[in-house]
């Protein structure tokens, strides 16, 4: 199949690599050569690591490299695509604009996937008219090459046939698929995990335990690879606050951010990127 990935950032580069490793011809489209260079470097580094760990042979890595093209030209990327996956920033206006351009340039039968983490598929599709029937939420996880889940989300206008094509595509990439049948912000995963993380935050603020002990309890007690607080620091507490606020708007008070989280963001304690969050990174 011919696959186009729009946006070659953290997720787009990983999804493109995954599709290339599954034998598809993949075009990545981003806005500039610098962005495409970063996508190429990320894929190269991931392929090299997979080879080092014997999870991929050199021949398979070469085949994946040969299946990938990098372009700033949207027509070139999507002109003959069977599947287009959008992985541009989590902003509704940007997704509207990008998908409208994709619909104008891609074949009329192309499947449209959006890798949004929590935006409503129905509102993303609202800009597409009848073509919203081809739009499916395809929520891959970071890093897409390693994480086993793809959460599919049905928008109000999503056709059954599109959902089945998305299921086939994601399964062919080696993912286990779950389907969020109702378009509900946060879907299954982000909604459930947000509550867990909020409860960890409340325990920290109530002095029930230290950040280290809360994270250790979650890691060793539930086999999470990272504790919820350290993951918050890793992704950025401003991003976390923004995500929680949007779930609060959708689902009400049980997602209300804590005062402590708001204060940390107001003070610029955003996690690793500012050197301080739940943990102190000033020593590197
Ligand atoms: N990072 C994660 O852990 C994660 C996990 C699951 C889902 N997501 C979702 O995936 C999407 C992408 O997130 P990300 O973390 O990869 O973001 P990112 O910022 O790393 O990448 C976004 C890329 O899109 C490019 N872009 C912007 N406008 C574009 C356009 N008009 N055409 C083509 N490219 C364009 C940017 O240059 C950038 O390279 C978001 O919707 C996000 O919510 C992220």
Descriptive notes:
This protein is α/β, with parallel strands linked by helices. The chain has helices spanning about 10-20, 35-50, 60-65, 75-80, 90-105, 120-125, 160-170, 190-205, 210-220, 230-235, 235-250, 260-265; strands at about 1-5, 25-30, 70, 85, 110-115, 135-140, 150-155, 175-180. Helix 5 links the parallel strand 4 (about 85) and strand 5 (about 110-115). Helix 1 (about 10-20) packs across helix 2 (about 35-50). The protein is globular. The model has no long low-confidence stretch (mean pLDDT about 95). Nicotinamide-adenine-dinucleotide binds near residues 12, 98 and 115. The site of nicotinamide-adenine-dinucleotide has 22 residues, from helix 1 and helix 5.
Question: What would you say about this model in short?
Answer:
The chain has helices at residues 10-21, 33-52, 58-67, 74-78, 92-105, 121-125, 160-172, 189-206, 211-222, 228-235, 237-251, 259-266; strands at 2-6, 25-29, 68-71, 83-86, 111-114, 135-140, 149-154, 176-180.
Distinctive features:
single chain, 284 residues, alpha/beta, Rossmann fold, N-(1-d-carboxylethyl)-l-norvaline Dehydrogenase, domain 2, 49% helix, binds nicotinamide-adenine-dinucleotide
Number of separate structural domains: 2
Q: What would the average pLDDT be, to the nearest integer? A: 96
CATH superfamily label of the largest domain: NAD(P)-binding Rossmann-like Domain
Number of strands: 8
End-to-end C-alpha gap: 44 Å
Query: Quaternary state, please?
Result: single chain
Hetero ligands: nicotinamide-adenine-dinucleotide
Low-confidence stretches: none
């Amino acid at each position: 199949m011919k696959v186009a990935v729009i946006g070659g950032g953290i997720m787009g580069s990983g999804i493109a690599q995954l599709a290339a490793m599954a034998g598809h011809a993949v075009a990545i489209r981003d806005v500039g050569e610098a962005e495409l260079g970063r996508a190429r470097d990320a894929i190269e580094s991931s392929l090299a690591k997979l080879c080092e760990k014997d999870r991929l042979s050199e021949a398979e890595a070469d085949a994946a490299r040969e299946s990938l093209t990098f372009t700033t030209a949207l027509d070139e990327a999507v002109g003959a695509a069977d599947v287009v996956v959008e992985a541009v920033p989590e902003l509704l206006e940007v997704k509207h604009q990008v998908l409208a351009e994709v619909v104008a340039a891609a074949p009329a039968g192309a499947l449209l996937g959006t890798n949004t983490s929590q935006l409503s598929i129905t509102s993303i599709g609202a800009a597409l008219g009848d073509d919203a029937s081809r739009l499916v939420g395809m929520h891959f996880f970071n890093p897409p090459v390693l994480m086993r889940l793809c959460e599919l989300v049905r928008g109000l206008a999503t056709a059954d046939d599109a959902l089945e094509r998305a299921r086939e595509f994601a399964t062919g990439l080696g993912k286990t698929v779950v389907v969020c049948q109702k378009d509900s912000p946060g879907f299954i995963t982000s909604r459930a995990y947000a509550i867990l993380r909020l409860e960890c935050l409340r325990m920290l603020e109530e002095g029930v335990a230290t950040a280290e002990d809360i994270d250790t309890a979650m890691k060793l007690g539930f086999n999470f690879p990272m504790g919820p607080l350290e993951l918050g620091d890793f992704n950025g507490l401003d991003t976390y606050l923004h995500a929680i606020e949007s779930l609060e708007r959708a689902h009400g008070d049980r997602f209300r951010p804590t005062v402590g989280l708001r204060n940390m963001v107001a003070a610029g304690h955003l996690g690793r990127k500012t050197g301080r969050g739940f943990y102190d990174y000033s020593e590197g």
